[in-house]
Specification:
This protein has 17 helices and 13 strands. The longest helix is centred in the middle third of the chain and has 30 residues.
Amino acid sequence: MAALPPALSDTIVALSTPPGSGAIALVRLSGAAAISLTDAVFSGKALAEQPSHTLHYGTIRDEGRIIDEVVVSLFRAPNSYTREDVVEISCHGSDYIVQQLLLLFTRQGARLAEAGEFTKRAFLNGAFDLAQAEAVADLIAADSQLSHQVAMQQMRGGFSRELKDLRARLVQFAALLELELDFGEEDVEFADRSGLLVLLTEVRGLVQRLLRSFELGNVIKNGVTTVIAGRPNAGKSTLLNALLNEERAIVSEVAGTTRDLIEDEVSLDGIRFRFVDTAGLRDTTDLVESIGVERTLKRVQQAAIIIYLFDLTDTNPVSLQAQIDDLHLPSTTPVLAIGNKLDVASEEELTAFQTRPDTVLIAASRGDGLDELRQVLLSRVRGEGLDRAGSSTIVTNLRHARSLESAAVALDAVLAGISSGTGTELLAADLRQALAALGEITGEISSDDLLTSIFTQFCIGK
């Protein structure tokens, strides 16, 4: 292992459980002095004499004063998360106790850890690559079954293995092209152009598949933004409350009650939906309401799915389509027409919409039809890829997607160059660019600025 920069050779300490009072808190130390610093204040067994992966009960003392009774977990290098000596102290979850422990260890010579520094050390010490390190943060933030599955698959190296295989297949040809440059005056070709063309076409296809998965990955990671739009008094707030199963929005018979966006999330069968209740769409002279309508029109343009809610008792199919057309939505945005108040609608009013595609009839106030609505929402996002999300490679990270885009551009340039008979020097340069873009994802090629940007997004104790 290469020597670490001075700041990373320090022994660091941080609280690794959420701040605030609780039953247990965990204070973590990592670095060459982690065991000796703890040994100096721990009353129990001599930790320096204990084997790795053992637990020890005792007390932490500050000049004879007992701070707390604790359990110390010992992990010796290289068999630890950071591949350094690591000590984890489980203490009572008092803010005062935690602060006393942190003060004590910093007086002993430890340094307070920076955000993500434990995981950064694990990466720099070769415990895992950069894509796996970022998956650690995704795993911590996972709030649905699917986001957990994808983060776990990436953290265990599935995505990294696929990328390393792609790079390895390209490196061999890149080396042959570089060899041709070394023998430029000889006018020889070591790299078979037809073989390179076949390989590049295959690799380009794999890169494109990964890029296509990002749209799905973004849904899994960030949820599905679902905007509930419609005219005033259609029952949008009632529907939001019913979907969330709580009184989140004010419900009133007075038109125009909702004047701003109201958002909340719910998980449906492992998929996170972010529902947005909006102001009723109508012409109004009320200044505040008109601002709400303007915000609604902006938000519908950003939605992944639109629930257009209409009142069955005062809408016909022609007027409904005109209302939806007035939203001027992108052609790719799915629109679900949801007819509300079926409990008071006439048979004729119901019949008019029963055969309309992408239409569900509900009674939001009673909950009628909500199960069907949930299933329709799920069917809109549950594609073939979503069913395989736990086992196949899904790109969820914007940085990864941008690197893949750069790789795809460079590969296209190499393919075009081979077809047009471009010289070896330009082919080699474009291929190097593709390899660099793929290497940025796993950290084989990285900069200090990139690492700082990534790891400062982590919590302090991770």
